[in-house]
Specification:
Elements (H helix, E strand, L loop, with lengths): L5 H18 L7 H28 L6 H29 L8 H7 L1 H16 L3 E3 L5 E3 L3 H21 L6 H23 L6 H14 L4 H4 L9 H11 L7 E7 L2 H8 L1 H17 L5 E4 L4 E6 L2 H14 L4 E3 L2 E3 L3 E6 L8 H18 L4 E4 L1 H23 L3 E9 L4 E13 L3 E3 L1 H11 L2 H19 L9 E5 L2 H4 L4 H9 L9 E6 H6 L1 H13 L3 E7 L7 H5 L4 E5 H9 L1 H16 L3 E5 L4 H7 L6 E3 L7 E2 H12 L10
Parallel strand pairs: 8-9, 11-13, 13-14, 14-15, 15-16, 16-17, 17-18
Antiparallel strand pairs: 1-2, 3-5, 3-8, 4-5, 6-7, 10-11, 10-18, 10-19, 11-12
Helix pairs in contact: 1-2, 1-8, 2-3, 2-8, 3-5, 3-6, 6-7, 7-8, 11-12, 14-15, 17-19, 23-24, 23-25
Length: 648
């Protein structure tokens, strides 16, 4: 029989073209790219052996029988392997090619192992094909089992596509469905018209359609440096999520790269990035380099020893200048590398670790190398857990508001109180305010916290009529700089007051010295507008931030709060005491109310008797309490005393 090999040659050309395009582009080292690469090679092998076997069968007298049998054996091996490889490809695409499903996958391949055993014995048994004494080619009695084997794996593919379609994009679903339909049609046609070699062409056609639905390399590559980008890192983590996770990695952050670019120009800065990434690639064997951000890179390794070699090489290299044309530039880098930590299987966790380590590194300075160990991870994960819990608490309005009474020595009364936010989570427990407030200032949640505190304080004052018959003349609410510079600040505060019987001056605001100095024009505008409506402002933590008086002089503060630690320091240091007393006298002459907070000891109280302070806040007099308990405490203490507003 003479075979028509035209379609097979065309299919081979298609497959080789796809192979060239596929293997010439940098690609992520993930499961489906690996399997797809094997499928390409298998289809090329299938087409080659199909053509050679057809020629050998057509001219048996010119080809040694042993070579004829070998070529046909290899062709049938390629044929019987195509459907199982397609099955493996779908397993990888649907994230099932993992240790968890290993036993099931092995069991599903038992029919292939049976077919493989028959294939091995075929030269002797002739179950698939054989040659008679006249060198004529005949199909064996089990030839149809090959079609059954292919149908079995195609059925598994169809089932997986249906059950796990959420893992596949629509174009991928359509191309795979077309692949299956074409395969069925071609197999039937090939069976009915054996002399027309069309299986290779059909496989190449289906391969082309599938290839066009894979990740575009351009989508995952950074244009400037040629390394993988953050999108690729996301894909990489998703691929490893159900496998081992990312265990060995390094984060490389260029120090003050923005300043360098400003000095040498954007063009040369881009050239340097290319040189820098080339150096990383040349010293990261079997690793994958990702550009995480503008000047931040992530290198992922399979083995810990390769990671440590990379870190050592980078540490040594950044000690020396980089040659950039006629320039010699000293650019340092900081590195953070995994050190015996559990595998990371979630993208947001890795992002959190990277961001937190870079933040920590910038606090320590340039050219730092920090191992990311279990302790670092525990601290970072605590931040992550607090952030999640805080977000949920804000959504469900579960923050607790406490009041700390503020004592007036002149009247022997508690005439003011500061509203303080407290947060307790069922899993984490009670969280220190300094911890979650600092976190909220970084992630923007401080705005939501401030709104919730203001809303709850206003509601409580109105419901309990706190401004009547308690002796209180003011409750202070802390104001963050993020709130203070919002254009809708005044409107939001008025909304809290709307419909409630609360005097405008009863609620005051406290803002730290540092934040006040950073406020800018919008903050000043908001502050003046609120003061004109009757609200008062106190500068909090004076002396602990930017030590200048610009904000006190230029902004309409009515009070200033000094930390009790300054009082204690003044007792031990005569010069400090002179500075402290002069400041207090100056504030008094400026008409400001002077409040000392953080007073906890009898010695601090004794020292304050000699200083003209107006109000004292601290554990010595009263600790923060839930709002109802605090008001009841204040009411009882102030009962029967002069509740007229003091002249200060």
């Amino acid at each position: 029989m003479l075979y028509n090999i035209d379609f097979a040659l065309c299919g081979l050309a298609f497959a080789i073209l796809i192979a060239f395009h596929f293997f010439s582009k940098p690609r992520l080292k993930n499961g489906h790219n690996l399997v797809f690469g094997l499928i390409i090679l298998l289809i090329i092998a299938d087409a080659i052996f199909d053509i050679l076997a057809a020629v050998a069968i057509s001219y048996p007298n010119s080809i040694p029988l042993s070579l004829n049998i070998t070529l046909n054996q290899l062709y049938y091996l390629a044929q019987m392997s195509l459907a199982p490889m397609l099955y493996l490809f779908i397993l990888s695409m649907t994230k099932l090619l993992t240790k968890k499903y290993r036993k099931r996958i092995i069991i599903s391949f038992l029919p292939f192992l049976v077919g493989f055993a028959i294939w091995i014995g075929n030269p002797v048994t002739g179950h698939f094909f054989y040659f008679d004494a006249g060198l004529n080619y005949f199909r064996g009695p089990l030839m149809l089992s090959l079609y059954g084997l292919g149908g079995y794996f195609l059925t598994l593919v169809i089932i997986l596509m249906f059950l796990k379609k959420s893992y596949l994009k629509k174009p991928q679903l359509y191309s795979m469905a077309t692949f299956i339909v074409i395969s069925i049609i071609i197999v039937i046609s090939q069976f009915l018209i054996p002399y027309l070699l069309i299986t290779g062409f059909a496989a190449a056609l289906a391969l082309t359609m599938t290839y066009l639905t894979l990740q575009n390399p351009v989508e995952t590559l950074d244009d400037l440096t040629g390394v993988f980008n953050r999108t690729a890192l996301s894909y990489h983590i998703q691929e490893l999520e159900n496998l081992r996770g990312i265990e060995h990695f390094a984060v490389i952050s260029l120090d003050d790269f923005a300043g360098i670019v400003k000095a040498i120009g954007v063009g040369r800065g881009n050239i340097f990035l290319s040189i820098f990434t080339d150096f990383m690639k040349s010293h990261s064997e079997n690793a994958q380099i990702f550009r995480y951000g503008g000047d931040v890179f992530v290198a992922c390794f399979q083995h810990e020893e390769k990671l440590k070699e990379f870190v050592d090489n980078m540490e040594r290299r950044v000690l020396f200048p980089w040659i950039l044309g006629d320039l010699e530039i000293g650019i340092s880098a900081s590195m953070y590398y995994s050190d015996g930590i559990p595998p990371i299987i979630k993208e947001d966790r890795l992002s959190l670790i990277i961001d937190q380590m870079i933040f920590k590194g910038k606090e320590l300075g340039n050219r730092v190398t920090i191992p990311i160990n279990k302790q670092e991870i525990a601290e970072i994960m605590r931040i992550y857990n607090i952030e999640e819990a805080l977000g949920l608490a804000l959504e469900e309005e579960r923050l607790d508001i406490y009041l700390q009474p503020i004592y007036c020595p002149k009247n022997d009364m508690f005439i003011s109180a500061e509203a303080l936010v407290r947060f307790t989570d069922e899993k984490i427990g009670t969280i220190n305010p300094d911890e979650f407030i600092s976190l909220a200032e970084k992630n923007g949640m401080i705005f939501q916290i401030g709104r919730q505190v203001m809303r709850k304080v206003c509601q409580f004052i109105d419901e309990k009529q706190v401004h009547k018959n308690t002796g209180l003349i003011r409750i202070g609410v802390n104001l963050s700089i993020l709130e203070a510079v919002r254009s809708d600040l005044v409107a939001s505060i008025e909304n809290c007051h709307k419909g409630r019987n609360i005097p405008y001056g009863f609620i005051g605001f406290e803002i730290t010295e540092t934040n006040a100095s950073l406020g800018g024009d919008l903050f000043t505008k908001n502050m003046l507008e609120l003061v004109n409506k009757g609200f008062s402002f106190a500068m909090d933590d004076f002396g602990t931030g930017y030590a200048n008086l610009d904000s006190i002089i230029g902004l309409p503060f009515q009070a200033v709060k000094l930390d009790g630690a300054l009082i204690s320091a003044g007792k031990k240091n005569e010069k400090m005491y002179i500075v402290l007393t002069e400041h207090i006298q100056m504030f008094k002459r400026m008409g400001l109310t002077v409040i000392v907070e953080g007073v906890e000891t009898r010695d601090q109280v004794k020292l304050l008797k000699d200083l003209p302070v107006d109000l004292i806040q601290g554990y010595y007099y009263a600790k923060p309490m839930p709002m109802e308990a605090a008001v009841e405490f204040i009411r009882e203490y102030n009962r029967g005393k002069d509740q007229n507003e003091p002249n200060n």
